[in-house]
Amino acid sequence: MSQNEIGIIDLALLDDKKIKEELLELVFNLIRFKTIASNEDELKKIIDFTENYLKDNKLLKIEKFKVNNKYNLIAKINDEVKVYFVVHLDVVDAKEEQFNPYLDGDKIVGRGALDMKGPAATVLYLFRNLNKFIPIGLIATTDEEVGSLNGVKYITENMDIKADVVVIPDGGEDFNIITKGKGAFHFRVKSYGKSAHGSTTWLGVNAVDKLLEFYKELKNIILEYKDDNENIENNWYNTLNLGKIEGGVKVNVVPDYAYAEFDIRFTEKYSLDNIYNVVDYLTKKHNLELEVLSTGSPVSIDLNNKYLQKFIQSYKEILSEPKFSVEHGATDGRFFAAKNIPVITIYPQGQGLHSDYEWVSLSSLVTLFKLFYNFILKIT
Question: Which among 39, 135, 334, 343 would be 20 to 30 A from 179, CA to CA?
Answer without folding.
Answer: 135
